[in-house]
Amino acid sequence: MMTDTALTVGLETFTHFEDRLQQMINQGSLTLMLSIGFRTGLFEVLGSVDAATCEEIAARAGLQTRYVEDWLTVMHTGGILEYDPLFQTYRLPLEQAALLLQRGGTHSYATSVQWVSLSGKLEDEIVSCFRAGGPLPADLLTQLQSQLLEDHSVSIMNGLFKHVLPIVPSLIMQLCEGSDVLELGCGSGQTLIELARTFPASRFVGYDSSAFLIDKARRSADDEQLENVTFIQRDLAEIHAIEAFDLIMAFDVLQDQSRPIRVLDQVFTALRPEGTFLMQDLARSRHREINLQHPLAALLYSISCLRSMAITEPDQSADNSRWCQEMALQTLEEIGFTAIDVHALPHDLVSDYLIARKPGSPAS
Predict the structure, then answer these.
(1) Which stretches make up the S-adenosylmethionine-dependent methyltransferase Rv2258c-like winged HTH domain (predicted)?
(2) Pairing mode, if any, of strands 271-282 and 351-357?
(3) Domains in the chain, ordered, with CATH?
(4) Which residue in 93, 146, 156, 227 is a FRET match for 51, CA 20 to 30 A apart?
(5) What's the per-residue H, E or C state across the chain?
(6) Of 32, 35, 47, 34, nearest to 93 (Cα)?
(7) pTM for this model (two decimals)
(8) Per DSSP, what are the bridge partners of residue 112?
(9) Contact of 118 with 148, CB cutoff 8 Å
(10) Rounded to an integer, what distance in angstroms lies between the CA atom of residue 132 and that of residue 163?
């Protein structure tokens, strides 16, 4: 029989959790509208003016006033925007702008926010995977991820040149002088096209398993009239190259592979002696207690769940374990890489950046 104290504690817990649920629903709605603000350019418009009316904001963004008014109301209700009832103007405070604008602050949360809307687009397919097993339709997740990256190409390229490339010693100088570079999982080719444009003395190759994305990348390269970049449709576990590249990059792709260990083994073979492997991976530990300390822990696990559904079969060589930072480091070392280092970069809260070097040829 329950005591009065137990009933009181139970009621308090019930009420507290109900409050949390209501907050989650509100925050979920706000997150969706944040994503819409990023994709429509509304935040960029707000960041370019001190204060403006709904009509002025809609006109600058080229959007329908009636819907912009609803969006602005949500942003004000959610504490994102300030509203002046006398002049009926909206303002994006500098503190918010630093985190929301792609050009402002150390990093932008735009990509993290859009992972939520991306999951929503896949909800029916995700439910089907829960019931019948995976994988997700072959190119669906890849195409949606590519769209997400294209929506934020400016901030991604800024991060690449400001934060990612500088962590590899002397890399910028080597690219200026001329290097052979391979990107695994190149998608629609944005990264390589920008690198090919910036470093004309270097030669760039991109592999991706998606015919749709490779075709898109080739068209973009042709439009730019770039002759130092090539895109090839290929299984990332079948690189089939021997000491052909000075630098191999894999941004956000290893955790999607059914055979990540084979991919890394192929990378080692394809690198020249003293070549560098640069890898971006989800900042996920084998230990749950470590992951729970991450400020975006729920998002990390959501992304991990979504990506696991894109894998057609488990990697038997990894004993069916989930891919994580510890496994990546262990595999790199066992394959023969040296000078392995892990970086957490300020522009990307959900990723780790790993650098590994292939040893030089033994002295004869």
Answers:
(1) 29-100
(2) antiparallel
(3) 4-101 (1.10.10.10), 111-357 (3.40.50.150)
(4) 156
(5) CCCHHHHHHHHHHHHHHHHHHHHHHHHHHHHHHHHHHHHHCHHHHHHCCCCEEHHHHHHHHCCCHHHHHHHHHHHHHCCCCEEECCCCEEECCHHHHHHHCCCCCCCCCHHHHHHHHHHHHCHHHHHHHHHHCCCCCCCHHHHHHHHHHHHCHHHHHHHHHHHHHHHCCCHHHHHHHCCEEEEECCCCCHHHHHHHHHCCCCEEEEEECCHHHHHHHHHHHHHHCCCCEEEEECCCCCCCCCCCEEEEEEECCHHHCCCHHHHHHHHHHHEEEEEEEEEEEECCCCCHHHHCCCCCHHHHHHHHHHHHCCCCCCCHHHCCCCCCHHHHHHHHHHHCCEEEEEECCCCCCCEEEEEEECCCCCCC
(6) 47
(7) 0.78
(8) none
(9) yes
(10) 42
Q: CA-to-CA distance for 251 and 290, rounded, in angstroms?
A: 23
Inter-residue contact 270 to 210 (CB < 8 Å): no
Distance CA 22, CA 331 (A): 44
CA angle at 161 for the pair 237 and 188, rounded to the nearest 5°: 45
**Cα(142)–Cα(144) distance, integer angstroms:** 6
CB under 8 Å to 31, separation ≥6 — which residues? 113, 116, 117
Do the Cβ atoms of 304 and 324 come closer than 8 Å?
no
Please give the Cα distance from 302 to 35 (Å, whole number). Answer: 17
Q: What are the φ and ψ backbone dihedral angles of 245, each rounded to 5 degrees?
A: -130, 145
**Mean pLDDT lowest among 173-182, 221-230, 299-308:** 299-308
Question: What is d(CA 354, CA 340) in angstroms, rounded to the nearest whole number?
Answer: 7
- Over residues 273-308, the pLDDT tens digits come to 999 999 998 888 888 888 888 888 888 888 878 777
pLDDT tens-place string over residues 48-69: 999 999 999 999 999 999 999 9
Query: Which of 101, 107, 99 is CA-nearest to residue 348?
Result: 107
Residue 259 has a pLDDT of 84
Is residue 193 a contact partner of residue 199, using CB atoms and an 8 Å limit? no
